[in-house]
Amino acid sequence: MSTETTASVSTHILDTSLGRPAQGVAISLSSRSGAGARWVALGASKTDADGRCKDLPALPEGTTHVRLDFETEAYFENKQADAQQDAPANRDSGAAGVFFPEVAITFAVVPGEHYHVPLLLNPFGYSVYRGS
C-alpha cells in the first residue's frame, strides 16, 4: 500500500524528424484539484541536452489533473537553420513557419502514482503516451 499523498510527473521530448532529443524546449506545469477547479501554475523549466526535464515542481496534495505546456515554436524556429536537407519545406504551416506553436497535454492523476509523459515531436505532428 502506498503512503504517498501526491502524484509525481516527469517528461522528455524526442524530435522524431531529427532522431534525437529536443533540447531547450520550455515546459510549464499546472495542476487542479477537480474537473471544475481552476488551473494553478506550479512552475516551469526547459529540457536538457537529453531532452529531459528533471526539475519539474512537486504536485500539491489533492491534485487530480495535470497540464504540461510545451513551447514548441521557439524550438522549431531555432532548428530551421539546422534542418535536414531532405526534409520537406514548411508548407502550409502559418506565418511563423511552425504548424504547432505549442502543445498542451492534460491528464488525470491519482495519489501515489508516477506519471512519465514523453512527447514525440516533429514539425507537423506529435504523439504522447504514458511511459514508465
Describe this structure in words.
The chain is mostly beta strands. The chain has a single domain, classed as Immunoglobulin-like (Sandwich), CATH 2.60.40. The protein has one helix and ten strands, in the order E-E-E-E-E-E-H-E-E-E-E. Strands 1, 2, 5, 8, 9 and 10 form a six-stranded mixed beta sheet that branches. A four-stranded antiparallel beta sheet has the order 4-3-6-7. The radius of gyration is 16 Å and the shape is elongated.
Features:
132 residues, mainly beta, Immunoglobulin-like, six-stranded mixed β-sheet, four-stranded antiparallel β-sheet, 6% helix
List the topology elements.
Blueprint: E1 8-15, E2 20-21, E3 26-32, E4 40-46, E5 52-53, E6 65-71, H1 72-79, E7 103-108, E8 114-116, E9 119-122, E10 125-128
Parallel strand pairs: 1-8, 1-9
Antiparallel strand pairs: 1-2, 1-5, 3-4, 3-6, 6-7, 9-10
Using only C-alpha atoms, the radius of gyration works out to 16 Å
Helix share of residues?
under 10%
**CATH topology (fold) name:** Immunoglobulin-like
Distance between the termini: 19 Å
Biggest pleated-sheet summary: 6 strands, mixed
Structural class of the helix and strand makeup? mainly beta
Mean pLDDT: 87
What is the percentage of strand-forming residues?
35-45%
Order of helices and strands: EEEEEEHEEEE
What is the domain total for the residues?
1
Query: CATH-wise, what's the superfamily?
Result: Transthyretin/hydroxyisourate hydrolase domain
**Low-pLDDT sequence parts:** 90-95
CATH class: Mainly Beta
Which descriptor suits the 3D outline? elongated
